[in-house]
Specification:
The chain is of the alpha/beta class. The protein has a domain at 2-182 and 223-248 and 303-317: Rossmann fold (3-Layer(aba) Sandwich). Helix content is 40%, strand content 15%. The chain contains 13 helices and 13 strands. It has helices at 11-27, 65-73, 92-99, 101-112, 149-167, 187-194, 201-204, 226-239, 255-262, 272-284, 293-298, 307-312, 321-333, and strands at residues 2-6, 35-40, 53-57, 78-81, 117-121, 135-136, 172-178, 180-182, 213-215, 223-225, 243-247, 267-269, 303-304. The protein has a seven-stranded parallel β-sheet, with helices on both faces. A two-stranded parallel ribbon has the order 6-13. The chain has a two-stranded parallel ribbon with strand order 8-10. Strand 1, helix 1 and strand 2 (35-40) form a beta-alpha-beta unit. Helix 2 (65-73) crosses helix 4 (101-112) and helix 9 (255-262) packs across helix 13 (321-333). It is globular and about 55 Å long. Residues 339-346 have low confidence and may be disordered. This is NAD-dependent epimerase/dehydratase family protein. Residues 3-248 form the NAD-dependent epimerase/dehydratase domain. Pfam families: Epimerase. InterPro entries: Epimerase_deHydtase, Lipid_A_modif_metabolic_enz, NAD(P)-bd_dom_sf.
């Protein structure tokens, strides 16, 4: 079996390679029986789990990416598309060249290479404004939240996948839509992407020492450990399961649950408009790297039902959402995790 993973050196890609190795070891498969191929802008260091894959350095934002990808995809049983850019968020066109044009290049190459299944990392961020008090299934509208570049790009890609399915009905299209994805090994990368270079990573670990955590009551979200998302991808490959799958762990994270996970004594209400203004001003002053669209996204997306993933994939989370968050903040405090790739530096 040949599996090609686009964006294999990132947060989810690393977890997926780990998952593939565990499956290979459990089945006593030889490297020739499971061929892992990684596609990344820059190949990572030759250490586990990266050394288990054959690497191709391809920038999917480039005009010639589809032709290069077609050659790599030839003979693949499945292509997993995880490539995504969260920065530079002050230059949306640059991000869109990877997020939107890159996704189209992957889909074009899948069709040209006659790959039978493509799996794409979508997101809770693809969903339109929805409820926080009830759970929605995968048929909830995927129009995104228009003030968030992340949500806009995810929604555009959902339409691209719709068109691809109509044009290529013989290809199984799988859309994995997770909540916030955490793992300790990605702590440095997450800190760099969302806090920026001016904020020392260990400083984020001091969140645990706050006397109270001020958060809007509408800031209700879901999280899941990267290994559990990787397991969902792997199960979908194994079952050649198509369609969309919501992936999230329990419990749902409201202000009280976040405070408890961090060991902060209590959460106190903060007006959403105040938090958004603080984030906006600090972002405009280049003090931190999170634009205010992320606040709009977090306070607008619905709470997801994971019933379909459990029924079709036999998927169950192994790490609670609170434990995944706790592990991430512990990793911040210890300055743990892989160093950001060269493309994230500077």
């Amino acid at each position: 079996m040949k599996i090609v993973v686009v964006g294999a050196s990132g947060n989810l890609g690393t977890a997926l390679l780990r998952r593939a190795l565990r499956d290979q070891d459990a089945a006593h498969q030889t490297p020739s029986e499971l061929e892992l191929v990684g596609v990344s802008r820059r190949a990572p260091l030759a250490a586990e789990p990266y050394s288990s894959a054959h690497w191709h350095e391809i920038d999917i934002s480039r005009a010639a990416a589809a032709d290069r990808l077609r050659s790599v995809f030839t003979g693949a049983d499945a292509v997993v598309h995880l490539g995504w850019a969260l920065q530079p968020n002050r230059h949306e066109a640059t991000m869109a060249s990877t997020n939107v044009r890159g996704t189209r290049a992957v889909l074009d190459a899948v069709a040209a290479a006659d790959v039978p299944q493509v799996l794409v990392a979508s997101s809770v961020g693809a969903y339109s404004f929805g409820p926080k008090h009830t759970r929605v299934s995968e048929d909830w509208p995927t129009g995104g939240v228009q003030s968030s570049h992340y949500a806009r790009h995810k929604a555009i890609n959902e339409r691209a996948m719709d068109a691809f399915e109509r044009a290529h009905p013989g290809v199984v299209v799988t859309r994995i839509r997770p909540g916030l994805v955490f793992q300790p090994d990605a702590a440095r990368e997450i800190a760099r992407l969302f806090a920026g270079p001016l904020v020392p990573v260990p400083l984020l670990g001091l969140l645990r020492r706050l006397p109270a955590l001020p958060l809007p009551t509408s800031l209700v979200s879901q999280a899941v450990h990267a290994d559990d998302v990787a397991d969902a991808f792997w199960r979908a490959i194994d079952r050649r399961a198509g369609g969309a799958f919501n992936i999230a762990a329990e419990p749902v994270l409201g202000p009280a649950e976040v405070a408890e996970a961090l060991g902060v004594p209590r959460a106190v209400p903060l007006r959403r408009q105040v938090l958004r203004a603080l984030v906006d001003v600090s972002w405009r002053l280049h003090l931190q790297a999170t634009d205010p669209g992320w606040i709009d996204l977090a306070t607008s997306v619905p709470v997801l039902s994971t019933d379909r993933a459990r029924a079709v994939l036999g998927w169950e989370p192994t790490v609670s959402s609170t434990e995944a968050l706790r592990q991430l903040v512990d990793a911040f405090a210890a300055d743990r995790g892989h160093r950001p790739s060269a493309s994230l530096r500077g």
